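Quick one, tokens below. Sequence please?
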């Protein structure tokens, strides 16, 4: 029986949906958070922050959004690998693992889209453009923001501070770094319902 044209696209959509149940394992392993955010949670906020900073910078925001949405998509296949787990691989082996996973997911799309998205994903992975550096920076910024929110929920600040500190060393975009510095200066974690005008 011949496959409907969009049947493989639907398979891609189901594959992408797996990241909603893939947890960000570092929060559980290093901090003991029983129900940490999912990779999908992280990707969503990374995309929103990337969009805002890209628009402020005058970058190609359409490309930035594609990069942000694709940046951790391989984890639908590999799971979320902490830096400790990544150390089990050589850098080239880990890159091969990630690329094989992203290729597998993208293979259900029409070839022109699959090739385009793979190219954008590689550009982001290799930090080949200002847009790529932005998304990689925001990936770390979002992690720091999440760590700060977990501190606000009562989790151990001494364990979470390492996530915030490590982000500072990896952020390459000046506006993302500015946001991190504001985050670090605040005397208490930001509440999502609070604003400075109230």
């Amino acid at each position: 029986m011949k496959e409907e044209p969009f049947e493989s696209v639907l398979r891609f959509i189901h594959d992408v949906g797996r990241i909603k149940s893939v947890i960000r394992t570092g929060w559980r392993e290093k901090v003991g958070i029983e129900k940490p955010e999912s990779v999908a949670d992280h990707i969503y906020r990374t995309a929103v922050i990337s969009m805002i900073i890209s628009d402020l910078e005058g970058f190609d925001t359409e490309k930035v959004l594609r990069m942000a949405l694709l940046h951790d998509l391989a984890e639908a296949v590999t799971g979320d690998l902490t830096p400790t787990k990544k150390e089990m691989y050589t850098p080239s082996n880990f890159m091969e693992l990630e690329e094989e996973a992203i290729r597998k997911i993208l293979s259900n799309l029409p070839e022109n889209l699959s090739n385009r998205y793979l190219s954008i994903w590689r550009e982001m992975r290799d930090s080949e453009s200002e847009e790529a550096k932005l998304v990689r920076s925001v990936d770390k910024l979002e992690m720091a923001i999440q760590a700060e929110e977990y501190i606000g929920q009562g989790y151990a600040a001494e364990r979470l501070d390492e996530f915030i500190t490590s982000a500072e060393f990896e952020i390459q975009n000046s506006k993302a770094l500015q946001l991190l510095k504001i985050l670090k200066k605040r005397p208490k974690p930001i509440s999502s319902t609070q604003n400075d005008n109230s």
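Residues 130-152 form the longest helix (23 residues). The two ends are 63 Å apart (CA to CA).
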